[in-house]
Amino acid sequence: MRKRLAQFRKLGRTPDHKWAMLRNMVTSLIKHERIVTTLPKAKELRHLADKVVGYAKKGDVHAKQLALRVVREKPMVTKLFEVMGPRYEDRDGGYTRVMKLSRPRRGDNAPMAVIEYVDRPGEIRAARVPEKRKQKYFNNLGEVLEHAGIKRIENQQSYEE
User: Fold this and answer.
1) 129 in Cβ contact with 56 (< 8 Å)
2) Predicted TM-score (pTM) of this structure
3) Residues 23 and 68 sit within 8 Å (Cβ to Cβ)
4) Which one, 6, 120, 124, 139, has the greatest CB density within 10 A?
5) pLDDT single digits (tens) 15-46
6) Are 113 and 101 in contact (CB under 8 A)?
7) Number of Cβ within a 10 Å radius of residue 146
8) What are phi and psi of 117, to 5 degrees?
9) Distance CA 14, CA 113 (A)
């Protein structure tokens, strides 16, 4: 029987406590753009963090009201809508990255992870360029290079010959 397999993680808390903790964590994630937490918490936070970025991409009044229900600080909502919304306008999802840390937490041996937003300055690992951004910036790359005086090499001989 497949009862209770498709639900979210409980994280050893009551639903009210879990919701309060996730709201605090998503506010901290928006503020610092990278936080260190346990692996199950990071995986659970990923859904909520991606959802609030989706609200920021919409940018209308209703989306701002929905974001205010989740994010605890108004300056972080402002940052979400003015900085992060435009940053991810050409990305269709996957705004966060969860990376496992090599060492567990010292006291209770809990697996630790870093959760961070992608496409930000100072990120640990560079994200792939979204297809929309590739099409937007790289379609006329040949024309730009020719205008700058860089010519295309037609005949390239291989070193194996």
Assistant:
1) no
2) 0.78
3) no
4) 120
5) 899 999 999 999 999 999 999 999 999 999 99
6) yes
7) 11
8) -80, 145
9) 23
